[in-house]
Design a protein that fits this description.
Layout lengths: L13 H13 L6 H12 L6 H12 L5 H13 L3 E4 L4 E4 L10 E5 L5 E4 L2 H13 L9 E5 L6
Parallel strand pairs: 3-5
Antiparallel strand pairs: 1-2, 3-4
Helix pairs in contact: 1-2, 2-3, 3-4
Length: about 150
Amino acid sequence: MSFTAHQHRLPAGDALATAARSVFERAGGQWTSLRATVFDVLMRFDRPASAYEITEAVSKAAGRRVTANTVYRILDLFVAGNIAARVESSNAYVANAHPDCRHDCIFLVCDRCGTTRHVDDDRVAADIRAAADRTGFKTLRPVLEMRGLCADCL
């Protein structure tokens, strides 16, 4: 595969929420008001957020206490539906900036400031999947993360 990266039209704000809802509903999910609130809160974080940070913000936005278990279940649905991604090493979540595109994401995580950048590189992802396949490993949920220092922290 010679194609190493691809570009996306990146919706933001209301357009991103609309795109996420559309993808979620096309897959058979129900876009409830609580799920909409969780997504709205998630997309407003400027960094990966823990489920507890999201729960606190959702409770505040909803004007009532929402349990972390409820938020975790919604986040799991969002990850399965490709409208959010989980940064495994940080146990944190980010809104998928391009929910209409399903591919393996690569996260670059800064160990100093916590900034997490999402990079698309289909060639790298394909090479890693091929390496796993050669060992007989069936990849179910690929998570690719690089830890280091961002340009601002160097």
